[in-house]
Request: fold
Amino acid sequence: MMAATAVSPGYRVARWGYLAFCVAAFVFLIAPILVLVPLSFNAEPYFTFTEGMLRFDPEAYSLRWYRSMFDGDEWTRPLANSLIIGISATVVATVLGAAAALGLAHPAMPGRKIVTALLISPMITPVIIAGVGMFFFYSNLGLAQTHIGIILAHAVFGAPFVVITVSATLAGFDWTVMRAAANLGANPLVAFRRVQLPLILPGVISGSLFAFAASFDELVIVLFMGGLEQRTLPRQMWSGIREEISPTILAVATFLIVFALLALSTVEWLRRRGAAGGQRAG
Amino acid sequence: MTSQGSPSVSQPPARPLWRRALGPRLRAAGLALPLVAFVSVTFLGPMLSLLTKSFYDPEVADALPETMAALRDWDGQGTPSDEAFAAVAREFVAARQERTLGRTANRVNRVVSGMRSTIMGGSREMVDAAAAAEAAGVEMDGAFWRETMIGIDSRWGEPEHWRALQAAGQRLTARHYLKALDFERGPDGGYQRAPEVWRIYVPLFWRTFLVSLGVTLLCLVIGYPVAHMIANSPPKRANVLLLLVLLPFWTSLLVRTTSWIVLLQNQGIVNDFLVAIGLIGDDGRIAMIYNMTGTFVAMTHVLLPFLVLPLYSVMRAIPPAHMNAAVSLGATPFQALRRVYWPQTLPGVGAGCLLTFILAIGYYITPALVGGQSGQLISNMIAYHVQTSLNWGLAAALAALLLGGVTLLYVVYDRLVGIDRIGLG
Reply:
């Protein structure tokens, strides 16, 4: 911080302006998300705060939108679909992505730069472009309107996240350790399980969380390729917003915010643990 | 090198040299191979089929092979040969009975509009004419069909419509790209720029570019102080502030879009608040959503974390001593900011802006939900042609053009930052 004695009145104004601007920016970032949470407990079918809610009248709050979320299969079926697709895609992405990251991190890997660019390309291509191509390609293979088609698409979008997070845990990995393990009689599988796996595990978990969240939130592919049987949570919210918007969507949104909080905390916790571990090792 | 490379006594001598040299390479490549193969099939495959679809269109050629064979040598002047008339009549009547003519007619209609009714209406009368001729015992040769078809619809006597048929029958074609760049077929069969009022796609590309640029700049203006504050806070507070940026990043896009609708719609919270404090009347509620404003606000909110995070990681590495030194050497805080701090953050500014811009340019869901009519971007048009108009060749050409632009930006990004250094915040 700058010495307080040297400040001019103009600087003080600028400093206050900066603080106010930053506070406003943080409010802009977070308020739109948090505002949905109290609204989801509205007793009335409105999307705005009723007078009762502003008076904190308990009568004005209810759990009716949470009950209607689990009433019938309007939201439970999409939730089940999202979980099936998300978990399957995550498993594929994690296994393939972690293996690829191990290969890429190895000093002997040929053509590392071009292979990395290829493996990351699904993540950085605008999904509308990939979606059009996948729609043509998977329709030709008869995979449009199947779970398999969407799982494959989501897996290829999710794998780059795993590649990146696992690669990060392997940065600075001393590969002579693996040779030492081999010299001590460990076969490559044992050496991997006992030496590398504990090291990359935080990266594998964060990567798979990223991959799952990407699938759980993905809509363009589902819109292009999914049929009635593949309605996922985002697909159902899309219809909800475009057709008849019911406050149940606020309960669903709150559920998804809680999910985001949990995923975020897990990844941050793993990152900090990883960083601490790295400091200890170094 | 050579003396050190020779195997020492303690090493097992069994493995030949080539295996020792190649083994680790093969093992490393073998680990990456499954994902490389998976990405090649499930991602590169679709990208190739997208590019193929944008210039390869065999549908009409496959549906009307005899017609296309008869038209192959026609020079585009006057009317084609009698054989062409006979081939068209035969294949139209056959396709009509198999109920496949509608698809063909749609394709031809995209080359010259109005051809759908010419083909569909005309073919119905051709079926009747064929039945009548058969009953009367008239021979249905080329001359018969020439007379009958021109009698049914005088367009069959004009070269323009035959040229449309001929053009639609070309398997390899640039017409989707020409259409995507707002060129249209003139009466002479050549392409020219469409009159200004009929141009759709180039203005839309331009609008997408401008909106992406505007959103990126807005994100920079908001994100720069935010990243600065996080980078210069004590660790505990910095962590909390970072969470405030990361929570929107992790929250579902649909949730964030829903919340902007709840906030900004006519009966929404912001308007209710403005009415309640008396700033606007109940009948003067401001339209803040389902237009360009909605697209702009929601997109800025969605993309802001993508700019803050790279900026933050660059700013964190700048020692505060630099600013203090500049100020104690007599610079005003503003001068120090402009001459010392800002230049050091440029790598983060470049990387963050480029990433934000690339993401913005392909945005689809947000404009579709909150953009109304005026807030639509090029990706919405692509989706429209995939799902509603079913003009897949045009959708592919638009997507391929967008892909070209994005690839160009990534080349810049690669030069600036390195494509393999894309991080996750």
